[in-house]
Specification:
The protein is built from no helices and 20 strands. The chain has 204 residues and is mainly beta.
């Protein structure tokens, strides 16, 4: 059955004129959508220097699967691929701009790869066809993915105009991504992030 993604946004702004944006992703039946990646890029640009996230940049191979299913990683920074299985794995991606291959390696060994291009790397194992995961490579520090409740909070976004993107591996649009414009409010108290969020996209 196809479902529709809908986006509900609110912004809480403080004295520093930076907003915390809450995004809820639901299907047409009101069910939460997990692992949707939300990125925000202010029109004024992003700070110089390396991007740091609070989560580890790694995809573990355990129980003949990749964990997590979706990882957000900064462009140019290495992602670790530890093998915790008793069998060997051969990690690869044929995704445009992020093709790579890590040949067979065994238990308690780790290999890493730095993704040079923003976008997506769909991961597979050349030995175990059922293994599948995605790395979403970004160039903004304002990024996160929805949890089991379908929600994500992007903290500390500068006030002003910005672009918002929603990506999910099953989002049935070009590039599996929908883009929107919004304005982060200013001033104390609760503000609304304004923009056109009327678009809907089917999930396969």
């Amino acid at each position: 059955m196809r479902a529709l993604l809908i986006f509900i946004l609110a912004c809480i702004c403080g004295p520093a004129l930076a907003g915390d944006l809450t995004v809820s992703v639901r299907d047409s039946a009101g069910r939460p959508v997990r692992d949707a990646v939300v990125t925000v890029t202010p029109d004024a640009g992003v700070p110089r220097g390396p991007i740091r996230f609070s989560w580890p940049l790694r995809i573990v191979q355990q129980d003949i699967q990749f964990q997590p299913y979706v990882l957000i990683a900064p462009v140019g920074q290495p992602v670790a691929f530890p093998n915790l299985d008793r069998v060997r794995h051969h990690v690869y991606s044929f995704s445009r701009g992020n093709r790579f291959e890590i040949e067979l390696y065994g238990r308690d060994q780790t290999r890493s790869h730095a993704f040079a291009t923003t976008g997506v790397a769909a991961l597979g194992c050349n030995i175990h066809d059922q293994m599948l995961a995605y790395v979403r490579i970004v160039d903004t520090p304002w990024a996160g993915k929805t949890d089991a409740s379908g929600d994500v909070v992007i903290a500390g976004i500068p006030a002003g105009a910005a672009s918002l993107k929603i990506w999910h591996p099953r989002l049935n649009v070009r590039g599996n991504e929908s883009a929107y414009t919004l304005t982060i409010g200013t001033g104390p108290g609760r503000q609304t992030a304004t923009g056109d969020f009327s678009g809907r996209a089917a999930v396969r």
